[in-house]
Amino acid sequence: MKKIPSAVIPHLSIYYRTILESRKNFLSSEELSKLTYFSPSQIRKDLGYFGQFGIPSKGYDTAKLKRSIEKILGLDRKWDVVLVGVGNLGTALLSYKGFIKQGFYIRCAFDNDKRKIGKKINSIVIQNIKDLERTIRRQNIRIAIIALPKDAVQDIVRRLVSCGVKAILNFAPIRPYVNNKKAAILNIDLSIELERLAYFLKRNT
Amino acid sequence: MKKIPSAVIPHLSIYYRTILESRKNFLSSEELSKLTYFSPSQIRKDLGYFGQFGIPSKGYDTAKLKRSIEKILGLDRKWDVVLVGVGNLGTALLSYKGFIKQGFYIRCAFDNDKRKIGKKINSIVIQNIKDLERTIRRQNIRIAIIALPKDAVQDIVRRLVSCGVKAILNFAPIRPYVNNKKAAILNIDLSIELERLAYFLKRNT
DNA sequence: TAGATTGTTAATCGATTAACAATC
DNA sequence: TAGATTGTTAATCGATTAACAATC
Q: Are residues A86 and A68 part of one domain?
């Protein structure tokens, strides 16, 4: 089986979303290109990694393609998620409806602030961070979202990985280290994005 | 002048942050590589686009390099910012200290929800969305952060661009369209990231 | 001077685009 | 069958890595 380039996966997300919003039964790579700004070749190539979904002279059956992408991306099932860090951002994430739409369910949340522990947000009780390992093991959770100050990140990542977490979405401006690729880390780094903006503005205003 | 590849800018952000955290007066590309996981060649090449900052056999003077990167990225000045959409995420962003550290100051915030208008968060009074253009023009603001439901995004982007906004940081899962590159848009798309996680988990658990 | 590390050119790798035979 | 659009191979483009002469 040929290797899937990592750039392809985010493309699939965009094709998927575009199909959801389209009413058409068939879309050609040309039409998809208009909607997504990816080139028709790119689209055909990307889809080609996973099979033959199109019909020459007609295009892609949107209902079929939708189901295929769901299967490829793993959107056809649910995932249990733990949230660590219930500050401003963590609270916003707890209430974020988008997670559920993608099948991600935040099942428990942790903080080290005594004033927050025991409080309920969106029907989730905030637990003491010292119970992290016990709860994660008991509930067999594999995904963590962490919204922590950057100095706390590395230690929490170590603890999460030690109790079986396989994927971590990190919002702090730091790239935590994980031993022998035991888990995948995705960093959402607002600082880097802001600095890209600053660079752009510097030379365009 | 040679063209700067777009991938270089995010690298600079990481070099910058690494220098800030290091106590050393000099760092070689080899040492920076250990800290950033970029290859030594990559680091020398990236910096080479902007000048000659290193001293053969010694490495890079961290104080000088820090100032150089600040200048390149535009971190040596302040930027006024408008926030549109004060829901859960918008509120979290209003209180986010990281912006100020990067020189981004949220000067005003807008929402269309009557119950929010007039309220104060972090000393910013939430204004009626219908006053958007007037306020932005008067304060001469060039940067917007939008935390809106996706159906509201395209119209607000149009309005922002029409009154002179040059850069927009968008958190909704949609890629808004801007006429003739009148403004830069940076999309922080949590859906895409979640789907990357789902894809990873699908084949590793 | 000898040793170390830069800056830069050439080689490699990966992703995007172009071209076109296969096929509905 | 003729026209349209796929799937796939070849060409191009851009980013990363390797190599090494220049230099502190």
A: no
